[in-house]
Amino acid sequence: MSQRRHQIKMGRIQLRHRWGWLVVGALILVSLSVQAHEVRPGYIDITETAPELFDIKWKQPVRAGQEGVRGLGLRPVFPTNCAPHGEARMVRRPGVLVERFELQCAGGLVGQVLGIEGLRRTITDVFVSLKPFEGEMITTRLTPEQPAITLGATNQSVWTYFSLGVEHLLLGIDHILFIIGLALVAHNFRRLFWVVTAFTLAHSITLALSVFELVRVPAAAIEVIIALSIIYVALDIGRGDDRSLLSRYPQLIAFLFGLVHGFGFAGVLAEIGLPRGDVALALALFNMGLEVGQLGVVCAMGAVAFVSIRLGAARYRASFYEATSIAMGGIATFWVLSRTATILS
Predict the structure, then answer these.
(1) 96, 188: one domain
(2) Domain end (from 155, 185, 220)
(3) How many CB atoms lie within 10 A of CB 190?
(4) What is the pLDDT of residue 48?
């Protein structure tokens, strides 16, 4: 009888590992798919330096690992009353392609149509900021569903940064995995509240420090450390050791790694910039959007946990934790290797 029980136990363990590796494979495929389709926003900063003379800064995201300066193949389409003034300058920065040029636009740009060619083929958005020589700043947002807009017809103002924060959190698989890991370690909602609070406080601090350029950290190195933080949490979940440092002091670990994730959140703002004159408000709205997205992830996990308990899935908790640990660790290891290779290339 004992031999039979041993065989059943070993069979269950093998089944857990098979499921775990299936999840790893699925997550890697999802990761590759996300990396192949950019979700980071583009940004057009337009400043009227003299009447009818405009300085243009056009930033577009670049696919991970892509060589050259083609970016996503997006191209701003300005109205016909605009003509080039001087030569364009182009530079490649980590994750973004920046082009600077000047336009002479008879009659100005307010009331004219601006569009982005190729935007319909992507899943990214483009933020537009127009600072007239006289008058208030105009900010708007172009999407694949609306790739052209009349400047001045609608002014979304800095509130667009709130939606950007929500989207950045919900589309950031690495940040979501880390939050999921923290939730699994916390075990109960009271402890989870303090863990999430510590994480929020920490990334808010470094986000502000980075945006106001008080601290500068290489973005590529931050991405590697974020992936390593996921591996650390995944290993702890797999061990299931209540005496581990993360299990005993989850708030402290969440705070320390939250400082790193804050620099990661700042990366998207560095790419598109912040509206002049409304930097503090835009930053606050972006951070609020991050928290709303983060709260959404936690609530979704709570709903799944509630349904699972009602269905009697609590007895499979150990198997779930093991599979989750393998999946998180596998995908994070993939990120570490790919991101490190990008730095070294």
Answers:
(1) no
(2) 155
(3) 9
(4) 92
